[in-house]
Design brief:
Rossmann fold, ABC_transporter_ATP-binding, four-stranded antiparallel beta sheet, 320 residues, ABC_transporter-like_ATP-bd, Alpha-Beta Plaits, cell membrane, AAA+_ATPase, ATP-binding
């Protein structure tokens, strides 16, 4: 199946010489939720702005459902809804007029039934006649989402959509995102709440210093890089790990009161259980007693931090 968004050799260098994006290649699948993760200044917003036709690329090509964003801008842009980070609204218009006007900008005929359905889905129906200037920040964010969806786009960009919003809006938004995905809409989001990406995304991309360093199915990524760790709380502090236990790769933590054993999660297989049983037996043979133990799996946030840190270290070493 043809990707809904195809990006090839995309670069952006500003007049100051700053390279915001460096040779990005990325295909986004139709009907998926794609999470784009990266630290501040990594290039996330620049990439979104180029796809949405708000910033011109220095090199490369972007197509939305086969429409080139430069040669066929109107058709490409009509496919896209964008919820920006900033709360930019027409302060003295009503909610209903703002969302209806946004639909008309894309040449769509009036559809009061659709606008009503949209406002109800975003808990805005009771505010439909209220001027935007009188709304709270969370309600204004809901209006931005309604505007982005007013022309029934096939691609929705959410740029830090839940930054600074209340828990209720965050919950409503993700329910809406799931419904949109179920109807075939492609959703691309950036977020600082990485646990949201872990819960919502089908695929994850990580960008650092303008370079796309990883694109992977979330489940595959968690399986390959997630790993697990067994933490043993020791009955008595340990000064160092005995040499007889060196092959386990144990890490002494919290002033010698914990031992950490990291391992890959290969399911509930016999091999994994045998390895842990061998470790516990060898600890007993070494005279090391523990008071408690628990296991935990690396989160997407842990993976993200380690990937970005490794990339930044590599760039620093190359620059020397």
């Amino acid at each position: 199946m043809q990707p809904i968004i195809s990006i090839s050799a995309l670069s952006k260098t500003y007049s100051s010489g700053f390279a915001a994006l460096k040779h990005i290649d990325l295909d986004i699948r139709r009907g998926e939720i794609f999470a784009l993760l990266g630290p501040n200044g990594a290039g996330k917003t620049t990439l979104i702005s180029i796809i949405c036709g708000l910033v011109n690329p220095t090199a490369g090509r972007v197509a939305v459902d086969g429409h080139d964003i430069i040669r066929d801008y109107r058709a490409a842009r009509a496919m896209i809804g964008l919820v920006p980070q900033e709360l930019t609204t027409d302060a003295f218009e009503s909610v209903w007029n703002t969302v209806s006007f946004s639909r008309g900008l894309f040449g769509k005929p009036p559809n009061p039934a659709y606008i009503e359905e949209l406002l109800k889905a975003l808990s805005l129906w009771s505010k439909k006649d209220v001027r935007l200037v009188a709304l709270s920040g969370g309600m204004k964010r809901r209006v931005l989402i309604a505007k982005a969806l007013s022309h029934e786009p096939q691609v929705l960009f959410l740029d830090e959509p839940t930054a600074g919003v209340d828990v209720e809006l965050r919950r409503d938004m993700w329910q809406l995102v799931r419904r949109l995905r179920d109807t075939g809409v492609t959703v691309i989001l950036t977020t600082h709440y990485i646990e949201e990406a872990e819960e919502m995304a089908d695929r994850v991309g990580v960008i650092s210093k303008g370079e796309l360093i990883l694109v992977e199915d979330k489940e595959t990524l968690m399986r390959k890089l997630g790993g697990k760790q067994l933490t043993l709380q020791l009955a008595a502090p340990l000064a160092q790990i005995p040499s007889a236990l060196a092959h386990y790769g144990l890490v002494l933590a919290k002033g010698g009161t914990e031992l950490v054993y990291r391992y890959e999660d290969e399911g509930e297989g016999e091999g994994r259980e045998t390895a842990i049983a061998d470790l516990l037996r060898d600890l007993g043979s070494a005279g090391i007693c523990f008071a408690d133990l628990h296991t935990a799996q690396r989160s997407l946030e842990d993976i993200f931090v380690s990937l970005v840190s490794a990339r930044e270290q590599a760039v620093t070493e190359d620059a020397r």
